[in-house]
Amino acid sequence: MLYVRLVEEAIAARYAEQEMRCPVHLSIGQEAAAVGVCHALSEGDRVFSTHRSHAHYLAMNGDLDAMIAEMHGKTTGCIGGRGGSMHLQAPERGLIASVPIVGGSIPLATGTALSDSLDGNRRVSVAFFGDATLEEGVFHESANFAVLRSLPVLFVCENNLYSVYTPLKERQPARPLADVAHGHGLSAETVDGNDAEAVLAAAGRAVERARAGTGPTLLVLDTYRWREHCGPNFDNHLGYRTEAEYLAWREKCPLERSRARLFDRGLLSAEAEQSMIADLTARIEAAFDAARAAPLPDPATAALHVYA
Ligand SMILES: Cc1ncc(C[n+]2csc(CCOP(=O)(O)OP(=O)(O)O)c2C)c(N)n1
Ligand SMILES: [Mg+2]
Questions:
Q1: Where is the chain membrane-spanning (predicted)?
Q2: Which residue of 33, 46, 210, 272 is 20 to 30 Å from 120, comparing CA positions?
């Protein structure tokens, strides 16, 4: 989580330089959801991410140099500089694709789960998505099919209470989000999404069910994004949410939570933390230096991979 936080803070700090020209959707404040779920997976499992993809990519151990280069539109990027922040992928690590079409991760993960189910292997697929996606038909169609076929898939909803500027209460009836699962006979669990250990435990249960052929699970992870929907800044002054709400969620910082536990348990010292921050910072600096030095794609290749 510290790694994810430092990478995204570095992106935010440099974004105004205009070297990264892609939109960025930061997960600062939501790190425990990505880290908790991805750490419950095993080699061969597959993850599909969204427009808010950095934390998922890093939690799956995607290559940092390739991520930062991708955000700079460089040939050394994870997809050759053609996609930017919303299209990160590291298939060799299990992060098969990131899809900025809201809801797009869901049918893809359901599809790989169907394929794995037909093959009789014990792989698990994960679709990450936001609270807005529960309003889309594709979630319900996929949930229906996944339950019917007992597919090994986790539907992971990071509920940060907003779709851009619109709060949940203006978009959905007042009921727990996980209630949408009941009509489909879909198992569901609501978890404190800022508690990495709770997320890991719930994801572990869902993975176990999926691997055992018992079927899919909806995980609703309650969390909060600290910065604007898209971009590096804070935007509470716009008035779509209150400063008090934001501050209450800052108090529930996922990193602070885990950090306090590690100190309490004697598993982390101030020195070890400082040296971890120094190592990560150096690694991140090096990734930015390499990205800046890398070549842009040849314009003559612009139409490659566009037409089939
Ligand atoms: C099908 C579709 N509709 C609308 C958009 C524009 N859009 C991008 S992100 C977003 C909000 C999504 O909210 P949520 O799913 O809660 O994810 P969050 O951004 O909060 O992580 C919208 C409406 C889109 N990319 N795709
Ligand atoms: Mg949201």
A1: none
A2: 33
Distance of alpha carbon 208 from its chain centroid, rounded? Answer: 21
Q: What is the pLDDT of residues 34-78, one digit of tens each?
A: 999 999 999 999 999 999 999 999 999 999 999 999 999 999 999
Ligand whose nearest atom lies closest to the CA of 222: 2
Q: In this predicted model, what pLDDT tens digit does every residue of 166-224 receive, in sequence order?
A: 999 999 999 999 999 999 999 999 999 999 999 999 999 999 999 999 999 999 999 99
Cβ pair 204, 40 in contact under 8 A: yes
Residue in 285, 280, 289, 294 with CA at minimum distance from that of residue 58: 280
What the block records as the tokens of 38 is 């991805």
| Measured distance CA(154)–CA(207) in Å, rounded | 7
CATH classification of the domain holding 215? 3.40.50.970
Inform me whether the pLDDT recorded for 308 exceeds 80: no
Q: How many A from CA of 132 to the centre of ligand 2?
A: 6
* 25: in domain: yes
Q: What spacing in Å lies between the alpha carbon of 130 and ligand 1's midpoint?
A: 7
Ligand 1: list residues with CB < 6 Å. Answer: 51-52, 100-103, 129-133, 160, 162-164, 229
**Rounded distance between C-alpha atoms, residue 209 and residue 228, angstroms:** 36
